[in-house]
Structures are given as C-alpha cells and as structure tokens.
Amino acid sequence: MRKPVFAANWKMNYGPQETRGFLLKFLASYPPRDDRTVIFFPPAVSLAVAGFALRDRPDVLLGVQNIHWEEKGAFTGETSAQMARDCGATVALVGHSERRQLFGETDEMTARKCAAAARAGLTPLLCVGERADERDRGTTQPVVMRQLKTGVGRLEKTQLASMLVAYEPVWAIGTGKTARPEDATIVHSAIRRYFREALSGSADSVAILYGGSVNADNTAELIAAPEVDGLLVGGASLDVDTWTRIVST
Ligand code: 13P
After folding, report:
1. What are phi and psi of 160, to 5 degrees?
2. Within 13 Å and on the Cβ side, how many CA atoms surround 137?
3. Which of helix, strand or coil describes residue 93?
4. Hey, where are the domains in the chain?
5. Confidence of residue 1 (pLDDT cuts 50, 70, 90)
C-alpha cells in the first residue's frame, strides 16, 4: 500500500516572506503524521526560506518547480538541481504543462531534466497530460504515453522505480473541470502498466498523482479512485486552511 502524496504547486505565487508565513501557519495546524506525504513546490526564490522553515519536519518535503538540465554555466535565469538541493529540496517537478505550453518545453527537454534531477539526488515528478483538442480526438493515451516514455527515457531502472508521475489533463488545470475519477483511473492504469513492464513486474513504488482543479470538496473521491496515489494541487493549495483540509482528508 502506497502512502498518499499531497503536493502543492504554488506556481508563481508567494515570495520568501509569504512562504515563511504560510509554512509556519501550516505546520502549527498540521502535526506530523506518517500515513501520508506532503510536498510543497514554492517558487525558486522561496526555496531557501522554505527549506529553513521545514528543517524540523522530515514528514513535509520540499520540491523545485523547474530545473535546468545542465549542472551550471551561462544559462541566465535558470536554476540547477544541485542549487535546489542545497536549499533542502528533494523533489523536482518536470514537464508541467505550463512549462510545455508557455515556455516551449519539449519531451526531450523533460527527459534531460528528469535525468539531471536524478543525478543530483532529487526525485523527479514528471507531469504528463493531454490538451482538450487531443482528448476530443480520442488521443489521450497515445499523448500521455509518448510524454511518459520520452520523459523517463534517460533514467536508470533504480531511478525509474522511485520516481513520481502526475497525470494532469491540460483542460482540467485552473478551469474548475476535473477528470471523472473513473477516467483518471484509466489513464493511471496505463501509466502503471508501463512501469510494470519497464521494471519487470514491481511498479508499486511509483506514485501516480492526479492534478487539475482539485479542491477540498473533490479530494476524497479523487484520492479514493483506484490507481490514484496522490494529488498535485495548484489554486487550492494557496489558501492555508483549504490546503490543511485537503492534506487531512
Ligand atoms: P489547479 O489545481 O489550479 O487546477 O492547478 C493544477 C496544477 O497545474 C498543479 O500542478
């Protein structure tokens, strides 16, 4: 039985001061529990403050929203996996649909980023998901499987076995429309089958999260869906009381 994972993707919200205030308030109302994993993905400039705020709470993990695939060098504006690690991050989000759609990130770039994360000791959390037009054409599974296979293509088997995946249909992100739990299960099952084949049987260590308009009212039914091991939450993770309700579900 995998522990449910509740991950907050803050996107471009909350600088260092707001991050510190949020985390202190959250930690005060959320005592440590070992039956679930909570991860925060603040903006890169807030990572160091977040790492400090979380220093005594190993049950709450920290992640970076995006990394560059190189270790260092002339890449203005970018953050390396090692820099995020130095701040206390242990997870790296890779291939979020906003990175793909707004910043031109390709499947091949996600593969390099997953590999760079794993090399630096960060667990990659690869995001996959189809756009509305791809869903309407009936190509959800081919799109998701292409993103998945290419994205993990540079990982070793042991790295594959400990990674995280998030299925986030693009049409569900920030729209108030969620996938029906049974539809999420179909895609999650296909992802699980891929890992079972790639890992020759045991794919139980790979947590597959759902994301897209998750809120405090739909958390329970989504997390209960077969093959849904956790949730990746945007908007609803920005309010500390709502987020505390979600992770306490
Ligand atoms: P919303 O929860 O705001 O739909 O965002 C989902 C998301 O993109 C998380 O990565």
Report:
1. -60, -40
2. 10
3. strand
4. 5-247
5. low
**Nearest Cα residue to 47 out of 76, 80, 94, 69:** 80
pLDDT tens, position by position, 179-214: 999 999 999 999 999 999 999 877 788 999 999 999
Whether 188 is catalytic is no
How many other C-beta atoms lie within 10 A of the C-beta of residue 230?
26
**Residues near ligand 1 (Cβ within 6 A):** 9, 96, 168, 173-174, 211-214, 232-236
Mean per-residue pLDDT of the chain: 97
Q: Write down the CATH number for the domain with range 5-247.
A: 3.20.20.70
Q: What is residue 203's predicted lDDT score, i.e. its pLDDT?
A: 73
Per-residue pLDDT tens for 66-88?
A: 999 999 999 999 999 999 999 99
Question: Catalytic residue among 105, 130, 168, 188, which?
Answer: 168
**Residue 118 · residue 152 · CB < 8 Å:** no
Whether residue 176 contacts residue 213, with contact meaning beta carbons closer than 8 Å, is answered with yes
